[in-house]
Amino acid sequence: MTTTTGTTAVTGAVGAAHTRLEGRDKVTGAARYAGEIPFAELAHGWLVLSTIARGRVRSVESAPVLAMPGVLTVLHHGNAPRVDGSYAGMLGRPDPIVEVFQHDRVPYVGWPVALVVAETSEQAREAAEALVVQYDEEPHDIAFFADRPGTYTPENSPAAQAETEKGDIEAELAASAVVVDAAYTTPEEHHSSLEPHAATARWDSGRLDVVDSNQGSMWVADELAKLFSLDPASVRVRSEHVGGAFGSKGVRPHQILAVMATTVLHRPVRVVLTRRQMFSLVGYRSPTAQRVRLGADTDGRLRAFDHQAQSLTSTVHEFIERSADMGRVMYDADAHHTVNRVVPLDVPTPTWMRAPGEAPGSFALESALDELAEKIGMDPIALRARNEPDAGPVSGLPFSSRNVLACFQEGARRFGWADRDPRPGTRREGRWLLGTGTAAATYSSGVVPSTAAVTAETDGTFTVRITAADVGTGARTALALIAADALEVEPGRIRIQIADSDFGPAMIAGGSMGTRSWGWAIMAAARELREQLVLGGDIPPQGITARSDTGAAVSALAKKERHSFGAQFAEVAVDVTSGEVRVRRMLGIFAAGRIVNPLTARSQFIGGMTWGLSMALHEEAIRDQASGGHVGADFAGYHFAANADVPLIEADWVDDPDADDPVGIKGIGEIGIVGAAAAIANAVWHATGVRHRDLPIRPDRVLLAGTRPAGERDA
Amino acid sequence: MREFGYQRVFDVPGAVARLGADPDARYLGGGTNLVDLMKAGVERPALLIDVRELPLDGIETTDDGGLRIGATVTNSDLAAHPEVRRRYPALAQAVLAGASGQLRNMATVGGNLLQRTRCGYFADLAKPCNKRVPGSGCPAIEGEHHNHAILGASEHCVAIHPSDMGVALAAFDAVISYETADGPGELPLAEFYLPVGDTPHLETALPSGALITGVTLPPTPVAAVSRYRKVRERASYAFAIGSIAAALDVQDGVVREVRLALGAVASRPWRAQEAERVLTGGPASADAFAAAADAELAAAKTLPHNGYKVTLMRNLVVAMLTELTEEAAR
C-alpha cells in the first residue's frame, strides 16, 4: 500500500494533556517491573554487606552456608569472576563500587562482601543472614562538619570549575552598607525510589541479556560490556518500567553480581536490593555545610557575592555536590566568588540526586537572599529584580532566555504576595503562627547527542524506537506526542518502544536532559522518514525506517547560558510550643521551555515541590559515629512527607519555548525541587522571626529556637 | 527469613496450651510489628499461633459501668466504638493518632500493648542493644537518641514505648486480663510494664506463656472530658516524639480530678502521678499547670539530643490542661 504521514496534517499533540500510554497497565498491575518478570530456572542472589566502616575481609565462611537448603553458590572476593573497572563510561569514571568482590578492602559500612545465590529468594536471604564474615577492623572517621580537616578544593576542569572568582570580595564586603554572612547545613538525603533496584541476568545464545530497572539501558549496557570485557554488541539491557530513579539507577552492584552469578551458574540470576541495602548501595545526596556572604548597597545592588560549599565523598571516589554553582547563573556582583569543596570520609560515595547541586545550594543561597532583603528592608522579589543580570555572571555569555522575573510576577499575582506584611511573627491563628516565603529556582538546560529510529508500517502506523527511559515521569507518552506532531498524525498512530539498548545510543533519563535529547532525535528521524515517504511507492512488509543521530546538530549549538527558571512560594503554620511546622499551600511558577504534556509535567513539578517540602521539614539520614553506619535506615526511620503533610500545591508555567530546540524544550526534571525548601524556610522565618539555617526544620529545632519579637534582629 | 510454622487457634485454652507446648512460639495478632521484626531477624519464632479468630473481639459495658475491650479488637474498631468515643474520647483519639488506616485495620489491642520499641538500634542486628542481646551495650546513649527516654530510663536502655493507645489506657487505670495454663490473671497497667533497670529485655510482668485476653477500663466519669494530643515529625504515620492524654474536672476554678499520662518519654506509657497530686484540689490556672508539669519533669534525665522533650512535655501539659479548662467552662 501507499502511505503518507496523513492526508490532512494533524498537529497539536504537543501541549495538549494526555494520560500515560501505560497508565492502565500500571494501575491494574499488568505492567511488570524488573523484579517480577518470570524466567525459567531463575536463581536468586542476596547481598551480604560489610558491618565495619574500614578494614579488610579476613574470611568469608561459606562452607556452613553452602550446606543450607537451596544454596547454589557464595560469591566473594576470593572466588568472583574478574572485572575491569578502569574505564570511562558515558558519565566519566565509575564509582569503584563497580569493582565488586575484586579485593578484600572495606571502605565503609554497607560495602558488598558476598552474594549468596539460592533456588528461592527466601533461601538466599536466610543463608545470607547466616553467613559469617570475619574482618580486620581499622579505625574509621565519618564526622562531617564545616571546615573539618581534610577538606580540599578539587581540580578545576573545563567541564566543571570547582572555584570561580572575580574582584575583591573582602574589599567589596567592607564597602557594602548591608552584609549577610550566614552558615547553612543540609543533611544526608536519599533517593528513596519506591521500586527497589532489581536486575536479572542470563546468557542467551551467546549474548548477555539483562532485565533491569535503570535510567539508561545503553548506559548500563556500555558499562557492563566494559567491566566484563565483552563486545558491546553482545550485551542487551532492557528496562521497560521503572518505579522512580532520581539519579540512583545507573550501574550498581546488583547488575554486576547478577552477571557474575549467571556466568558461574549457567542459569538466570536475579538480584534485588532491600530498602536497607539501598541506603548504602545506590548513592545518596551528601550532607552540605555552606557559607554565604552577601554585601549590598542600601538599594539592594549586590557588591559582593560569596558562596562556599562543602560536601563529603568516599575515600575511593571523588563526587562533588556542586551546591555553589547556582550563583554562577543567578546573581552578579562586583566581586563574585563560588567554590565547591569536598572531604573524603569512610562513607559510601554520594551521587546525583534530583537537582544535584541546586537542591541544597538553593536552600542556602535563597535563604541568604531573604536575609539580605530583611536587613535592607526590601521586598525579596524586588531584591531579586534589582540584581537581574544581563549575561552569565561568571561566563559573560548571553542567556538563551531568562524569564525568572516573569515567574515571580505571575506567582506573586496568584499567591497574593502584594498583600503581604513583611514584618515577621505578627500573624496568629490559634496556636499557629503564620508566614509566607518565596525563593527563586533554576536548573541548567542541556541536550546530549542521541539516536532514534522511526518506521512507517504497512498498516499506517509508525513505530518509534529509542533507548529512552521512562522512570515514572511520563517520558514514553511525551515522546509519542512529539513523534505524532513531527509526523503530523494522531498520537494513536504512534507505537513507541523504549528502554532497550539494542535501539542504539541515547541520553539517559537524567540532568533534565532526557526528553529534550530524545525528542530532538525523534524529530530528526521523523523528518528524514517524511522525506523518504514523499517519494511515494509501496511500503514493504518490514516497513520503511529512518534513523537519526543528533551528534552534529547538538555540537553546532551556540554557546549560551541555557537554563530553566522558576519562582517558589509557600505559606506555613508554625506552633513554637510543640515545634510543629505545617505547610499550608505552595505555588511554583516555572519558565522551563515548551511543555510537551501538561498533565504529566504538572505532576513532575508538583513531585519536585513535594520533595522540596520533604527536604525542608523531614528528610535526614542519621549516621552513628560509633559504627559508621546508619541508624533507622528504612522508611520508619527515614521520614519523608506523608500525604497529610502535603497541602494544596499548584504548579504552572509561563511561555518560554527554547528557540534553539526543534520542539522548544528546556527540561523539567529537576527544577521543581529547587528553591522549594528555601521558600518554606523563609516562610518559617516570616511566621516566627527566627531563621532556620539547618535542615530539616525539625520540631526540636523549632521548639528550642522559639520566636523572636518583630523588630529584633536575628543573629 | 527463617522458616516457621503457622497455626490458627479458635479457643483460648487451646491457644494457651499450644504456646505452652512450644517455648519458641509466639502469638500473632495483626502482625503489624511482629512480622516486621521477623523480617529484620529480631524475632525468629518457630511457630506463630494466630489468635485473631479467638472470641475476644467484643467491646462490652461492665456491670459497674466500665468497659471491657477484647484483646483481638482491632484498633479501627476500638476507635470507632460509640461507647469509647463518648466515655473515653482520649482513647479513641489516641488510637486514631497512630499508624495508618490499613495498619489500624489489622492491629489488635493485645498486640498494641506488647509492641516493641522503634529504637533504631533495637531493630538492627549489626549493632549492640541490651534489649535485644542482654549485656551487649546501649549505643543510643552515645549515639542517636533524639527520640529516646527522659523518664524512668537506665544506663542500660533509653528506649521508649511507641504506643499511643497505651498512653490513654494509662490515664484511665486500665487493667489487663490474661490467661495462662494455670488459669486467668489480671495486672493493672501501672504494674504491667517492668522498670527498665538492668533488665531492659524483660518488658512486661505477664507470666510466661500468658495470652492477653482483654483490657478493662473502670468507670471513669472524668474521662468524658478528655483529649489526646500527639506531636510527631510529620503530620501522619510517624511515632510520637511527645504525646499526652489528659482528663480534667474543674469546678469553680478548682481541680476536682485530673488524669495525665505522657507518651514517648519512657519505656512505658507514663502516668504523671506527681503532676496529678500537685494539681488536685488546687487552682485550674496556667501557673498551676506549669508547676505541675515541672513537678513531674523534675525527675527527667536528659541526654545531649533529647533535652527538648522536657520543654515539649511541659508545653503540652500546660496547653492541654488549658484547653480542657476552657472546654469545661463552656
UniProtKB/TrEMBL annotation, chain A:
Positions of transmembrane segments: none
UniProt KW keywords: Molybdenum, Oxidoreductase
UniProt xrefs under SMART domains: Ald_Xan_dh_C
GO MF terms, alphabetically ordered: iron ion binding; oxidoreductase activity
Pfam families associated with the record: Ald_Xan_dh_C, MoCoBD_1, MoCoBD_2
Residue ranges occupied by any Aldehyde oxidase/xanthine dehydrogenase a/b hammerhead domain in the UniProt entry: 28-139
Identification of the protein by name: Xanthine dehydrogenase family protein molybdopterin-binding subunit
Species annotation: Streptomyces inhibens
TrEMBL record, chain B:
Keyword check for Oxidoreductase: yes
Gene3D superfamilies: 3.30.465.10, CO dehydrogenase flavoprotein, C-terminal domain (3.30.390.50), Uridine Diphospho-n-acetylenolpyruvylglucosamine Reductase, domain 2 (3.30.43.10)
Family annotation (PROSITE patterns): FAD_PCMH
Domain FAD-binding PCMH-type: 1-222
InterPro entries, per the entry: CO_DH_flav_C, CO_DH_flav_C_dom_sf, Diverse_Substr_Oxidored, FAD-bd_PCMH, FAD-bd_PCMH-like_sf, FAD-bd_PCMH_sub1, FAD-bd_PCMH_sub2, Mopterin_DH_FAD-bd
Alphabetical keyword list: Oxidoreductase
SUPFAM superfamilies, A to Z: CO dehydrogenase flavoprotein C-terminal domain-like, FAD-binding/transporter-associated domain-like
GO MF annotation: an example: oxidoreductase activity
Protein name, UniProt field: Xanthine dehydrogenase family protein subunit M
Native organism: Streptomyces inhibens
